[in-house]
Amino acid sequence: MTARILADVAASITELKANPMKVVASAHGEAIAILNRNEPAFYCLPAETYESLLNQLEDLELIQLAKARKHEESISVNLDDL
Q1: Class (C level, CATH) for 9-70
Q2: Which end of the chain is more exposed for a tag (fewer CB within 10 A), N or C?
Q3: pTM for the complete prediction?
């Protein structure tokens, strides 16, 4: 069975076990496809890249929420009343 690898860098599980930090460093912050018998088993991301990805997803969710509420009736609020 063939599988699409969605990363520019790939490493085997054996390489990852032998030296995980070397494998992560070799990708320079990008995703790494971890292969098991030449098939992608999972993707490995540095913590900084993962955090950035989650922030981008959160921003997209907030944009969708804002667009969905764009036509709702607005309510005037006085900050002193809060």
Answers
A1: alpha beta
A2: N
A3: 0.73
